[in-house]
């Protein structure tokens, strides 16, 4: 049975994530490599675990989270679809059952807000984890004078935590934003699509999505 540990130690996975990071850096995007996929993987697994899913489903969510951005090694455009196929080929190539690999493929193929939607528990947990990773550590540009709006919004976020409560049936995204760097409205301007997708993902899991910024509930 293929495990998350097998994926992390795979030289093929390491290579694709490194190439993806190189391409995203050249294109001027925020960090999408080992830091990001590690956080998304851990968060997706934690969400599934908190909601009482099986140990194997938790494991598959972690794997999906770790592999979800490998399509960036090919091209940023349609990276979710490309990454889904690459992930399936990688996973079956190292012996994963085709049904499990297909579940991960489907989750990765639906994680991008432009073309995706929650279609399974694994995909919903991946969406919540991925779309909630907004933080200043993802910004590569160190010159504030040359920040675009994405740099400014990410850099303004000093803390970002997504958590679920199985008893209260909630998924809470809690952000701390330095409003001297970025007003709250700028966050909504560029991340409204992500928040809508988070709400749909939470609903798929039977949860209500709530957004808190600087201790104020906005959604």
Explained architecture:
- It contains 9 helices and 4 strands.
- It is globular, with a radius of gyration of 17 Å.
- The chain has helices at 4-9, 11-27, 34-50, 55-67, 79-93, 98-109, 121-131, 149-156, 184-204, and strands at residues 157-165, 170-177, 208-213, 216-217.
- The longest helix is centred in the C-terminal third of the chain and has 21 residues, at 184-204.
- Helix 3 packs across helix 7.
- 55% of the residues lie in helices and 11% in strands.
- It has one domain (4-217): Hypothetical protein af1432.
- By secondary structure, the protein is an alpha+beta fold.
- The chain has a 4-stranded mixed beta sheet.
Helix-strand layout with pairing:
Blueprint: H1 4-9, H2 11-27, H3 34-50, H4 55-67, H5 79-93, H6 98-109, H7 121-131, H8 149-156, E1 157-165, E2 170-177, H9 184-204, E3 208-213, E4 216-217
Helix pairs in contact: 3-4, 3-7, 4-6, 4-7, 5-6, 6-7, 7-9
Strand order of the largest sheet: 1-2-3-4
Sheet-strand content, in percent, reads 5-15%
Topology as a string of helices (H) and strands (E): HHHHHHHHEEHEE
Determine the number of helices (DSSP H or I, runs of at least 4 residues): 9
Task: Write down the CATH class.
Answer: Mainly Alpha
Weakly predicted, low-confidence segments: none
CATH-derived architecture: Orthogonal Bundle
Ends apart, CA distance between termini? 41 Å
Number of domains: 1
Structural class: alpha+beta
The tally of strands reads: 4
Helix content: 40-55%
Gyration radius from CA atoms, angstroms: 17 Å
Quick one: biggest sheet?
A: 4 strands, mixed
